[in-house]
Write a structure and sequence with these properties.
2 domains, Aminopeptidase, disordered N terminus
Length: 249
């Protein structure tokens, strides 16, 4: 992600919101992937049982008609993954899923420092941190950040500044489930407890909001992130999530 693109995203207040698409009893959220208007981002919303072959065929026709030439999915669970693979999708990447009981006993050592609510003027700094912390495939642009913040009925967006933005997190809640949607620390600030501080902030917020379980995922080769979450009481789930890809033409 170039600096010029970050500035342009900040200067334009409009976001490309995902569109809700219904095909039969299945529902999806669809939009451009990372600003590429020929690549669709596809997030299935309903259960795997709704993803029958005729439904997926109709969805592909609709996406092709809208000008998309390929599709990349959100991270999906094994049942959805298998339905999509049977439709011709292939696994593009996998993610390790971790979970934690929000009410679990045992207090974590506070690393010190404070977070604060992110503001619109933090957007450029947040995107710079994100671009430095993740390889290109996993980076968020302004639209992706907006989607992460609005994917759940309630969310919390926090930053750490010193004085520029050096770390940020997005946490969401939907009923009893909590999600650490995004967490990134600038490379020059890693190892200083900022990741732990943001995870603690997320867990405390989820507890106050009545969530029972917290979920997070990360690429399996991101050893630093895996170690952070496990130190904070998360356990690795047996099944990985998958991001899939399919050409439409």
């Amino acid at each position: 992600m170039s600096a010029a693109r970050i500035v342009a995203a900040h200067a334009t207040p409009e976001f490309v919101a995902l569109t809700s698409v219904r095909v039969g009893s299945a529902r999806f959220r669809v939009g451009p992937w990372q600003g590429q208007h020929d690549v669709a981002y596809l997030a299935p919303v309903t259960a795997a049982s709704t993803l029958a072959p005729p439904v997926l065929a109709s969805l592909r026709d609709r996406l092709l008609h809208q000008g998309f030439s390929s599709v990349i999915t959100a991270a999906v669970a094994p049942l959805v993954r298998d339905r999509l693979i049977n439709d011709g999708f292939s696994v593009r990447a996998e993610l390790t899923a971790l979970s934690r009981d929000v009410e679990a006993s045992g207090r974590l050592a506070h690393p010190g420092g404070r977070t604060r609510r992110a503001r619109r003027r933090d957007l450029d700094g947040v995107l710079r941190v994100d671009a430095g912390a993740f390889p290109p495939f996993w980076r968020l642009d302004a639209e992706g950040l907006h989607e992460a913040r609005t994917a759940t009925p309630s969310s919390r967006w926090r930053v750490i500044r010193s004085p520029e933005v050096t770390a940020y997190s997005i946490t969401g809640r939907a009923g009893p489930m909590g999600y650490l949607q995004r967490l990134a620390v600038a490379t020059h600030s890693q190892g200083r407890g900022m990741g732990t501080l943001l995870v603690l902030d997320a867990l405390n917020w989820l507890q106050r909001r009545g969530a029972q379980t917290a979920l997070v995922n990360t690429p399996p080769d991101n050893e630093r992130a895996l170690a952070l979450y496990q130190r904070c009481g998360f356990s690795v789930e047996p099944d990985r999530l998958a991001v899939l890809h399919r050409d439409l033409v």
